[in-house]
Design brief:
The chain is built from twelve helices and 15 strands. It is an alpha/beta fold and 385 residues long. The chain has two domains: 130 residues, Aspartate Aminotransferase, domain 1 (Alpha-Beta Complex), CATH 3.90.1150.10; 237 residues, Type I PLP-dependent aspartate aminotransferase-like (Major domain) (Aspartate Aminotransferase, domain 2, 3-Layer(aba) Sandwich). The strands form four sheets. Strands 2-10-9-8-7-3-4 form a seven-stranded mixed sheet, sandwiched between helices. The protein is globular, with a radius of gyration of 21 Å. The structure holds pyridoxal-5'-phosphate.
């Protein structure tokens, strides 16, 4: 039987994943410098409080509302501030699910969304599974990363429905500047496009530029429809609880929210327990985020010290987020380099190509790795790259 053409032609793992599976099957302990699952990074979660929040009587209630429970939405609106209201929000089971709903909302099969690259690799599939094409538009690096607004505008076609940006971006860690924001919203307004802004990492500013756009919500009245995505997986470092949300602003917001509620009503995928716990979890989140921020800063400092001893390497600036780009002489392809490091040192890094970085000469490391393995990992791989 033929499967949908939206699916990959093959489910074979790529060479790096295959090598990783083989080494693990052989019993090799892998030092994973890509880990992005915060529950595996040694943070001290307030376990008793989290368990208590998930045991309140309301976890047994089923009172479905396609927008999500009002108390959870009120807590999220308070977390964001900037005049956001509970009625501007719709809950999802994750940010990824939020993308699925938005792509269903905005496009018909064959339509396109523009995505600045390098960027988060999941967009290709999230769009494709909804019948859309995610077209990459390269950003450029000049002292810091910049959106190429001219290239984005040139890429707009009659089938373009939206632009998707991540603020700060994964993996480049760059925030949108206010100038980029105004250019982007004006471009979307000119071409009747929606703007999707993924701010899952917005609470993790490290070295933000002075004119950074702290959040898209700072613009109360954008000239185009704006859909902001976020969720507990980064805001509270609790990906296992599966709660995301979409905030809707800009022209047509009321109608867009009603259409999203219609879509969400077909699934009702957000569990009662996480909605009942949301306000307590958000109250606990600052304590968890502080630990994450401390880790990010400690690893950046360790990385800078290690890079100073290997002058052929540079790390690009990280304005925010959980990852860092390491620039190296492109003596071999990034894919080959990552495979070589894995096989010779049992240390996993991501090649830049994984995030659609142009050319070779970039590896991507996670700053979430506990400090000691992070330093060991650098000690193992730096002499070989
Ligand atoms: C930019 C970005 N958006 C969304 C997600 C996924 O978030 P969620 O767990 O809420 O689906 C990630 C996960 O790493 C991410 O990097």
């Amino acid at each position: 039987m033929r499967l949908s053409a939206r699916l990959p032609h093959s489910f074979e793992p790529n060479a790096l994943s295959a090598a990783l599976a083989r080494l693990r099957a052989e019993g090799r302990e892998i030092l994973d410098l890509t880990v992005s699952n915060p529950t595996r990074c040694g943070f001290d979660y307030p376990e008793a409080d989290i368990r208590a929040a998930l045991s309140v009587p309301a976890v047994l209630d089923y009172d479905p509302d396609p927008l999500g429970s009002r108390t959870a939405r009120e807590a999220i609106a308070t977390h964001h501030g900037h005049g956001l209201r509970a009625e501007d929000l719709l809950l999802t089971a994750s940010t990824s699910e939020g993308y699925g709903l938005l792509f269903k909302l905005l496009g018909d099969p064959g339509d396109e969304v523009l995505v600045p690259s390098p960027g988060y690799p999941l967009f290709d599939w999230l769009a494709r599974l909804e019948g859309l094409h995610a077209r990459a538009v390269p950003s450029y690096f000049h002292e810091r990363w910049h959106l190429d607004l001219g290239a984005l505008e040139a890429a707009v076609s009659p089938r373009t429905r939206a632009i998707v940006v991540v603020n700060p971006n994964n993996p480049t860690g760059h925030f949108l500047s206010k100038t980029e924001w105004h250019g982007l919203t004006a471009l979307c307004a000119r071409h009747d496009l929606a703007l999707l802004v993924d701010e899952v990492f917005a609470d993790y500013a490290l070295e933000p530029p002075s004119d950074r756009l702290e959040t898209a919500l700072a613009d109360p009245d954008p000239p185009c429809p704006v859909f902001l995505l976020s969720g507990l997986s980064k805001v509270a470092a609790l990906p296992q609880l599966k709660l995301g949300w979409i905030a809707v602003r800009g022209p047509g917001a009321g109608n867009h929210r009603s259409a999203l509620a219609f879509l969400a009503d077909q699934y009702l995928s957000v569990s009662s327990p996480v909605q009942a716990a949301a306000s307590t979890l958000l109250a606990l989140a600052p304590g968890i985020r502080n630990q994450v921020r401390k880790r990010l800063r400690a690893n950046l400092a360790a990385l800078d010290a290690a890079v100073a001893a290997h002058p052929h390497l540079t790390r690009l600036s990280v304005e925010g987020g959980w990852s860092v780009l390491l620039r190296r002489p492109a003596v071999d392809a990034d894919d080959a380099c990552a495979l070589r490091l894995l096989e010779s040192t049992a240390t996993l890094v991501h090649p830049g190509s994984f995030f659609d970085l142009q050319g070779d000469g970039h590896l991507v490391l996670s700053l979430l790795v506990p400090e000691t393995p992070f330093r060991h990992g650098m000690g193992r791989i730096f002499p070989l790259i």
